[in-house]
Design brief:
Elements (H helix, E strand, L loop, with lengths): L12 H31 L5 H4 L5 H36 L4 H16 L2 H11 L4 H26 L3 H9 L4 H31 L11 H11 L6 H31 L29
Helix pairs in contact: 3-4, 3-6, 3-9, 4-6, 5-6, 6-8, 7-8, 8-10, 9-10
């Protein structure tokens, strides 16, 4: 008799064989798709030295590095400000005062519904703000509103008994939030927070629409302003892996934080010293030493 779980039965020999066939077919299909893409790239001459030669020049390398630095700078500002704004709006939505809660809810829902590009263009064109502040402001308003909902949902996901027990001990609401609810909610919120920060990192590429010299803007300049038969595909092949690598690095950092939290002494089980032989107290109400 095969073992089983509460959700599904362990697959038998025929099912495992069928799954292996599906896996082989899927692998072959993916490899064929990759081979077809590579064939098209070679057939259209995307790997010729003429199209890759611009990247050998120091000016092009400095342009890409400067764009990458501007992208990271915009992301750093937007990430920090989004976390701060999200925390403030989440506190407003969790407030016991109804007017504060209504205002925070209105702000969150408005900026969550507003497209990021529209906010960036409005701040840049209508308010005549410089490209970097306009980009950071647009990203902060949108991502901060989304993170506010993440924070609120994370705090509400903590068992209600934790809150009631803290209040029973005489703790104030601020103490309950900072010492009881927030530390437990961080674990539930961390994946969603990192996912939203990845979105903010990718949305920094919208800066090229307002002439902010970020990474994508640098690639656009290389592809459109150089007389090398428009090396658009090589530029994409250089920029895309760097964007993907930065997002993967951010995800790795989140996993590292999660592992650190699991190893935190405050969350680990306390070690109990082994019992040592000693004198046993006699039993009974008249035993010596009892009062």
């Amino acid at each position: 008799m095969t073992d089983s779980t509460a959700l599904y039965d362990i697959p038998g020999p025929r099912t495992r064989r069928r799954h292996r066939i599906y896996g082989v077919i899927s692998t072959v299909a993916i490899l064929a798709l990759i081979g077809w893409v590579l064939y098209l790239l070679f057939d259209t001459g995307q790997f010729t030295a003429e199209k890759w030669s611009p990247f050998e020049y120091k000016g092009i390398q400095e342009l890409l590095l400067r764009g990458l630095g501007n992208t990271l700078k915009a992301f750093a500002y937007a990430a920090v400000l989004s976390l701060v704004l999200g925390g403030i709006l989440a506190c407003g939505r969790l407030s016991d005062h109804r007017p504060v809660r209504w205002v925070a809810t209105l702000v969150v829902e408005f900026f969550r519904a507003m497209p990021v590009l529209v906010m960036i263009f409005f701040i840049f064109v209508a308010l005549k703000v410089q490209p970097l502040p306009a980009l950071v402001a647009g990203l902060t308003l949108y991502n901060g509103s989304v993170l506010a909902e993440v924070f609120r949902a994370g705090v509400n996901s903590v068992d209600r008994g934790q809150r009631e027990a803290a209040y029973a001990l005489g703790m104030r609401k601020t103490q309950v939030m900072t010492h009881v609810l927030a530390p437990q909610a961080v674990r539930a919120m961390l994946p969603a927070i990192i996912s939203q920060l990845v979105v903010a990192l990718k949305d920094t590429s919208l800066g090229y629409l307002i002439t902010y010299e970020e990474f994508l803007h640098a690639g656009k300049l290389i592809a459109s302003n150089l007389d090398y038969d428009l090396p658009f595909i090589p530029v994409v092949m250089v920029i895309s892996p760097i964007y993907i690598g930065m997002c993967m690095l951010l995800s790795w950092f989140a996993n590292w934080i999660a592992r650190r939290q699991r190893r935190n002494p405050k969350t680990e089980a306390a070690e109990i010293a082994p019992a040592e032989p000693g004198t046993l107290l006699p039993k009974g109400p008249n035993a010596p030493g009892r009062t």
